[in-house]
Amino acid sequence: MFITIACKSNFPTVTLMDFSMFSEICKFLDSHVVLATIDRLFIAANVEIIANDENPDKELCRFEFFEILLRISQAKYRETNIVSTPSEAFEKLLKENVFANYKTHPWQEFRDKELWTVDVNDVFEANLESIRKIYSSFFDPRKKYMTMGDALDLFMKMTPLQLTEKDAIFCHGMCKMTCVNEAEESSVKYKRLQFVELLEMIGRVAEVKFRGTEMEHQLGLAQKIEFILDDLFAPYELKRRDVKIVVDEQSESDDEY
User: Domain of life of the organism in this record (predicted)?
Assistant: First the structure.
């Protein structure tokens, strides 16, 4: 859930404005929990005992997002004597407010059901060399990786795809692997794009680009990716390679002679 919200906000964090919208969707607000309460709890969850450049002062990273949900649950259910324990309040908030009202975008499910398939793998395998050329084009003597900024430029400005900033940030955030320790690794894990993440980002862009169109349900993800690769390759004067279908001829077994 946090990934979905952050990808629609200021990835990899969530702004106060976006969290306030999330609060309204989840129906946190009532006579006891008002917007001023959300503002106060947002500030409380952002307090840093030790200054940390990895953690923005006015935005929520993942562990702060969990903390503010806990704080809201206490204000909404425990302090009003609806429940008696912190765990009951938190469970009630999650079940009745969060999970019941907020629809998350498939993160791991997209990988398991659509991205990690033979058809998609075949398309990437056939064009891996060209994709690596694009990836390495962002290198310099001291930088052997793509950054988030590089990825946004690639999909928003440098190719015919012309993705909106909102969609580009969303696709970048959804393709990222889990950052275990956000307090120490977020600038590296979230701001650098690994090659395997670029492959997933291409898949995410393909899904977003065709959403709401006539071809959304007519084409499989592998076919959508082929269209995206055509646009990605064009400025680099690269040509997409079609998947070669190999048919194995089965020989007769000895028993059939």
Answer: Eukaryota
Q: What is the pLDDT of residue 191?
A: 86
232's CB contacts (< 8 A; 6+ apart) are 131, 134, 154, 159, 161, 202
Which domains, from first to last, does the chain contain? 2-101 (1.10.238.10), 108-236 (no CATH)
pLDDT at 247 over 90: no
Region for 163 from its dihedrals, namely left if φ exceeds 0, alpha if ψ lies in -120 to 50, beta otherwise? beta
Q: What residues contact residue 92 under an 8 Å CB cut-off, 6+ apart?
A: 73, 77, 82, 83
Chain-centre distance for alpha carbon 165: 14
> Phi and psi of 95, rounded to 5°?
-70, -50
Q: How far apart (Å, rounded) are the C-alpha atoms in residues 100 and 124?
A: 37
Helices (H), the chain: 2-7, 16-25, 35-45, 62-73, 86-93, 99-101, 108-110, 118-126, 128-136, 148-156, 165-174, 182-191, 195-209, 221-233
pTM confidence score: 0.86
Read off the pLDDT of residues 111-126 as tens digits, 9 standing for 90 and up. Answer: 999 999 999 999 999 9
Neighbours of 103 (CB within 10 A): 8
Task: Give residue 257's pLDDT.
Answer: 46
The 10s digit of each residue's pLDDT in 65-78 is: 999 999 999 999 99
Can you tell me the distance from the alpha carbon of 1 to that of 176, in angstroms, rounded to the nearest whole number? 14
